[in-house]
Design goal:
The chain is an alpha/beta fold. Helix content is about 40%, strand content about 15%. The protein has a seven-stranded mixed beta sheet with strand order 1-3-4-2-8-9-10, sandwiched between helices. Helix 4 crosses helix 5. The longest helix has 27 residues.
Length: about 300
């Protein structure tokens, strides 16, 4: 990442004083744990608010966002530094095109990430989408196949467009709970994660509202309908994921290209050789020894042996 342009994180000054204080406290906590650099990978389908979320965290328009244009075809890394701490956020193109997972986009993302370590995966979807389908599962599966199941131990789900009125008379918290469980079920199925594997370390879900119509509290912080100041809550969840004891994901050549086909089955070679020795080589050796022994027996004795064997 040495070639990446790292700018001073001046956008943090755009937040209300209460938000700034909370963010600096959380970054200080990471530095106390010897975490001086944090790299966040943002992924999901197109149009779910990935780029807007990146801009909200940074506090400036670092990534272009337009409701009338498609997303950029390549990943973009935004790097900001503050008090000896470097924050890298990687915005990525949508993973779906024409109703299918875009394998080409995934390949571009993986190549872009070569030799980088993913500290946190932020999987973005929308709160105001009421259903999940097989395509959602395929997107999660594609991420898992690309970076391994362990990436979800460093993952969190962000649900955008959180400033809404729930349907069917549901309370806001009930609707959030149902939508969260639906998305997490897709994550478990797509990543092939068993429930017992994530007990005590479930993928957290965070609500986000990037639009200017987001309500504010008395401290001028952007809040959700349930009163949560969502920017500090999102950053706190990110720091909790970093501190959960799991390891970041190093995207090396082996991870990108997959296992070497020449390496497959190498562990079986000793067993194959042992089988060949005891069931093939040893048998041939016995046959050779038998033929050698038979050559030393006189012809008349061989005839007598043949007659005796027929009698029995």
């Amino acid at each position: 990442m040495a070639s990446q342009l790292i700018r001073e994180w001046t956008g943090i000054q755009q937040f209300p004083a209460a938000t700034q204080t909370k963010l600096l406290e959380m970054l200080g906590k990471l530095k106390q744990e010897d975490v001086n650099t944090l790299t966040i990978l943002v992924m999901g389908k197109g149009g779910v608010g990935k780029s807007s979320t990146v801009n909200s965290i940074i506090g400036e328009r670092a990534v272009a966002v337009s409701a009338f244009q498609s997303e950029g075809p390549r990943p973009v890394m935004v790097s900001r530094s503050r008090a000896g701490f470097t924050l890298n956020i990687i915005d990525t193109p949508g993973l779906v095109e024409g109703g299918y997972v875009n394998d080409q986009a995934l390949e571009i993302i993986k190549r872009f990430l070569l030799n980088k370590t993913i500290d946190v995966l932020v999987y973005v979807d929308r709160l105001d989408v009421y259903r999940v389908d097989n395509l959602d599962r395929q997107v999660v599966k594609a991420i898992t196949d690309s970076f391994g199941k362990e990436i979800w131990r460093r993952g969190l789900v962000v649900l955008t467009h959180a400033q809404l009125s729930p349907p069917d008379g549901l309370s806001y918290d009930d609707f959030f709970s149902r939508r969260s469980e639906a998305v997490l079920k897709v994550v478990r199925l797509g990543a092939r994660i068993k429930k017992q594997d994530i007990q005590g370390s479930s993928v957290p879900v965070v609500l986000v509202e990037n639009s200017g119509r987001c309500n504010k509290n008395d401290s001028d912080e952007k809040i959700l309908p349930n009163g949560t100041a969502w920017i500090p809550n999102l950053v706190k969840t990110i720091t909790d994921v970093v501190s959960n004891g799991s390891k970041g994901i190093l995207v090396d050549k082996k991870l990108i290209e997959g296992p070497n086909p020449n390496e497959r089955g190498k562990f079986l070679i000793p067993f194959i050789l042992a089988f060949q020795y005891f069931f093939v080589v040893k048998r041939i050796q016995r046959w050779i020894q038998y033929d050698i022994a038979m050559e030393d027996i006189p012809a008349w004795e061989k005839r007598d042996m043949a007659v005796a064997s027929r009698k029995f």
